[in-house]
Amino acid sequence: MSEYELPLVFFTVLCQWAVGSIIAMTALMTVQPIWLNEETRFNRLRYMALAILAINIVGSFLSLLHLGSPLGAYRAILGLGHSWLSREVVAFFLLNGVVFIWAAVVFRFNRNRALVKSVSFVASLAGIAAILVSAQVYYQMASHPMWHTLITHLNFIATAILLGFVTISLMVAVYQYRQHAPQGKIPGLLLTGILLGVLLMFWVVLWYSHGVNGQGQMVRSAIAVLGSGLMGWLIFGGLITGTCVATYLYKQSSISMVGATVLMLVILSAAVCGRMLFYSGVMSQSPWF
Amino acid sequence: MVRQYGFLVDMRGCYGCKTCSMACKSENATPTGVLWRRVREFTFDDPNGMAFISMSCNHCDDPQCMKVCPADTYSKRPDGIVVQDHDKCIGCRMCIMACPYNAPVFDPVEGKTSKCNLCAERLDEGLKPRCVESCPAGVLQFGDIDELRKRYSADLSRIETHYKLPDHNISHPNIVIIPAGDKE
Amino acid sequence: MKNISDIRLNRRTLLKGLGVIGLASISPCAFSLVSEDKKPLPRVRLKLSDYQTFRSTCAMECLHCNLTAYVYQGELKKIEASKDFNVKCCLRGMSRTKWVYHKQRVKTPLLRVGEKGEGKFRPISWDEALDLIEKNIRDTIATHGNKGMMLSTHAGNMDSIKNDMGKAFFDYLGGSTKQAGSLCCSAVTAAMMPIVGLRYADMRDTIADSRYILCWGNNPAVTMQAYFKEYIKAQANGARLVVIDPRFNETAAKADEWVSIIPGTDTALALGMIKIIMDEQLYDVDFLRQHTGAVYLVDAQKKQMREKPEDAESYLVYDTLTQSTVRHDAPGIVPALTKAELPANAEYTTVFELIRTESQQWDLAKVEAETDVPAATVLRLAREYASSKPAMIVQNMSGAQRTEFGTYVAAGQFYLALLTGNMGKAGGGVCDAGGVRQMIKINPPLPAPKEVQKIPPIPVSKVGDWIVNERPHPINFWWIMTMGVLTQLPNTNMVKKALKKVPFVVVADNLMTSTTLYADLVLPVTTIFEDVSLMAGVRSHYVQLMEKAVEPVGEAKPDYWIFARLAERFGFGEVFNQPIEHYIENCLEGTGITIEQLRKGPIKPVDAPWIPFKDGIFRTPTRKAHFFVEEWQKKDFAPIVTYMQVKESPKGSPELAQKYPLMAVQRKLARSVHSSHGMNEWILEVQRNQPNIMIHPDDAASRNIRHGEWAIAFNNRGEHRALAVVTRQIKRGVVSLDNGWWEQQGGSSSHVTNDLTEVLGTGHSCNSTLVDVRAEA
Predict the structure, then answer these.
(1) C29 touching A, CB under 8 A?
(2) Which runs of consecutive H residues, i.e. helices, occur in A66-142?
(3) In chain A, whose CA is at the least distance from the CA of B91?
(4) What torsion do the CA atoms of C231, C236, C238, C241 make, to the nearest 10 degrees?
(5) By CB atoms within 10 Å of each CB, which of A265, B148, B149, C56 scores lowest?
(6) CB C357 within 8 A of CB C178
């Protein structure tokens, strides 16, 4: 199991989920201002913001479990000058602050739409930055071709977008399901976001499979990744289910809480599988020499 | 003053006894599962062959461990030895992931990583690294890498292809490997 | 040091309490926080001047490299190769730190409480243990006589004191049943003693001078490890290194050529080479005439002719100068070697011609058919060996002689070396195992008792079988020391039965070995560095003092202490209970070497490189090497080396081979010496920690055996489980098994090996074994 680096899997996936959700929520507020204006709808967002904050905090806390000496975690910033891990630690520390402020603003200052929107926008940007810093940690390891590529950045962003837009789309759909009111369309931007996430993730998968034609460690990594059963779940639970969710919501625009939860879990678990592959593709080759 | 210390491995004379590995273990009293120096074994069929490369830390010019370490535990001494301040280690294992040669080793019991320091304390006492001293066939040598390279100009690229070694351009290891010769 | 450890432990305890473990299920690191306590890395490094140092040597059957122990505050911290010694020790020597402080050290005498084999014991005091032993010895003598007591000693401790003390103790009691022969090399003894008159005559001092090294059925890169640098030096000087072995071994990997051969057919190869050497007259005529019995005359009844029947050394030769038969040592003669030099109508012939007759049938085609060595290779081997001088055959207790007719295998190698005149020359000869006892006389530690009963021994390979079947008589009391009978004796299942059958089994050892599991009483004995002893044996060219560096762990005592206490109870205490220095002095008496000198370091009794039989002076009564061995003839075997098909082989037992078609050979690993070191945690970490079975891809494919998966070698004697290594580095039709794995690790290859006694030397035929292999279900 250790080759999957589970603490890191959950840390990165959860935090990326949180960031993606903030981005999707910002998009929702922008294209359907009714979500800002109507109190019941906005209340959904308020609680969603708290949930996202919680996910981000839990995710960040899980990163500590990766450490052999968690009590020394404070020393993780000593290498700021050269280590992207140090920078990641700082970035996520700051991100948690930003997300906290964002959640607080959404939760408390709901009357000020401009403030909520602009803070959401800032939080989205901060989230993307943090994710890119995360990706740099792996990009920095020049000896692993599967990590030392911009695909790592793409992979992390894809995860965030897929999970975030699925979450917020499902939230809207569940809301509409419960209202029994005349249902509006799920914003096209959200569904496009889902498809974009699927597309980016597909790109990552294609790149992995292309790795079989590469050389050295990349070939071994690609074979390990493609040969794993987890890849099947990533494709089914992530790419196919993601596309289905977008298609379904385009047609139906509402879904039961149970249905939404199941779909969310399927896609989340696919993202976890994808991330496990990301780590095991390299770590299962250890010792590389 | 030595600019950079390094190891030399003469594969021609190495028959894979692993005494170096044990010498390192006994000198540094590393915990169970923590082996700083390992002898890599290569077996070939058709034509039959066996080869061995003993390796610990290569005290690289561009140490990847040092680069990725978030706790700033690694430093390069003026004589080029990459040493670790073990107390500062937080066990994040980034160095293990980053090092192309698997030099750092994690001890799950202690929750920390450690690696070969080229017996820096022994050098300071005027002794040779224990692995070098223990090699029954004199296969392992150590010294000023510039001197070693002057004496043996072995091209690492050919060995890298043959034994699937990582590309030396990643970290610029300070090791000279003399290949086993025609029988490779 | 201690304080730092404490602080660290406390910190770890603190961590445990921090609730992090709640999430341990997903964190491999957090998981381990709750596992066992381990000492952290020593952060404060001891300086060289902080240590006390002591010297000793590995005492089991190995090269006896000199070791230096570094001791700090009464604790053994590390072991290094001694700086002034000629070779450097291997990883096993260094790992002895962990042996002294091994988790499975026997710390008190242990009395069995469970069934034999269960390994359940309760600690008892030394007094109780000694009482029990005394009672059992007295009872056994009363009911069975002295022959009811059996003593097993072997190669687990080859120092100059302990095994001898054990044997002497039972002799002072009036005698006991002992083992005959040895597992390693009695076939070599049976060949060497009559041929050259000395055993343990090794060539290690001049390996580097050799131009051609033939490693025949052995693997010096592993079994002569410390000296392998000399082989590499020889190669660097232009020597050709050739390995004859069914397995592509570590030496073969360094060699210029690997000749794979069907196990048990080595004598056919040797005879084939001899034929070529004879046909092409590549032999050394002068050497043969002057220094060997090749010129001795043999009559029509195939008996060597003597001048006077009562004078054993009065062999006759035919002097070509005077055209008459004369004593071989008559001055100024030129004895006839070949038939052409004899009178045309002579009714006698020479030993040389007997060898020619014997070898003539081995033309290249027949050699190839029997050995599977290509005819061209045989031809080249013979020519290269005979013409590249000096050429050395590395015998070193070869696996080839652990076969049914191993004596002929060893003798065939001596034939080759003698015929080509390579014996007695630097870089030439036959490299046996060897030691200081070939150079000087080392005495037994104590005088032999006056009256010892003559009791028939049990051939060592047959210990299990004979005890179970009460041959030649029932055994009631069995003392086992310096021997892992359960991992080393062939046919392990039979040995287990024997251990269960004997009512009182004492095992004196320092670890809970496989054999202790079947003991009635386990006695804790010291390891090296815990007692004082002397090493002046047959594996090192140095006399070495074995110093005590630390106090023994628990109640462990040296074997000689145990025999001293028992001797006191039987009324000959003063013979055994003198200070150890007394016995060491006894051993050294007459050598000119003193304990005081030895305290300064090991001593090699000769200055120059040791070249046994230098200038063709052999150690037989005639000082000549003898090809014709009358001892074999007396046993109704051919007196000239001859090839015989081993019984347990596809050709020798076609029916058995239907069931068990694969020939099994055993290999030694750098991880252990026989089974010693086999459970050392450092060794398990540094070396391979699971047994392997090497099998050819063709043999594996038909059996569905996959590389890296578990497979089971089996035959009518038992089963041996190991990881399959599917490789062309083993001959098709042959599998290679690892010797020495403990019962606790799944058991040794001895579970399947042949317990047939090697016929001429009472040796071990483990490499004449048939098995089949199946994939583990």
Answers:
(1) yes
(2) 84-108, 113-139
(3) A68
(4) 30
(5) A265
(6) no
Phi first, then psi, for residue A31 (nearest 5°) are -85, -25
**Which residues of chain B are within 8 Å of residue A83 when distances are taken between CB atoms?**
67-70, 72, 94
Residue B34: which of C682, C70, C97 has the closest Cα? C682
Beta-carbon contacts below 8 Å between B and C: 135
| Binary contact (A82, B170; C-beta < 8 A) | no
A152's CB contacts (< 8 A; 6+ apart) are: A135, A138, A139, A278
Q: How many CA atoms lie within 13 A of A94 on its CB side?
A: 18
Tell if the CB–CB gap between C232 and B13 is shorter than 8 Å. yes
Print burial letters for A157-193: b (CB count within 10 Å at least 16), e (below 16).
bbbbbbbbbbbbbbbbbbbbbeeeeeeeebbebbbeb
Is the N-terminal amide bond of C123 cis, ω within 30° of 0?
Answer: no
Say if the Cβ atoms of C26 and A7 lie within 8 Å. Answer: yes
Spatial distance between the Cα atoms of C661 and C770, rounded to a whole number of angstroms = 6
Neighbours of chain B (3+ CB pairs under 8 A): A, C
Q: Sort strands C544-546 and C533-535 into parallel, antiparallel or unpaired.
A: antiparallel
Tokens at residue C339, please? 């038939």
Which letter does DSSP use for residue A238 in this model?
I
B142 forms beta bridges with B7
- Taken in order of first residue, the domains within chain C and their CATH numbers are 4-100 (no CATH), 110-183+440-527+555-591 (3.40.50.740), 189-432+618-627 (3.40.228.10), 654-775 (2.40.40.20)
Beta bridge partners of C70: C53, C78
Tell me: the pLDDT tens digits for C642-700? 999 999 999 999 999 999 999 999 999 999 999 999 999 999 999 999 999 999 999 99
Tell me whether C681 touches chain B (CB under 8 Å): yes
Dump pLDDT digits (tens) for C299-350: 999 999 999 999 999 999 999 999 999 999 999 999 999 999 999 999 999 9
Nearest-neighbour CA in chain A from C27: distance (Å): 6
φ/ψ of residue A108, rounded to 5? -100, -45
C518-547 burial, b for 16+ CB within 10 Å, e for fewer? Answer: bbbbbbbbbbbbbbbbbbbbbbbbbbbbbb
Alpha-helix residue ranges (DSSP H) falling in C44-197: 91-94, 96-100, 126-144, 162-172, 186-196
The Cα–Cα gap between B29 and C1 comes to 13
- Tell me the CATH number at A279: 1.20.1630.10
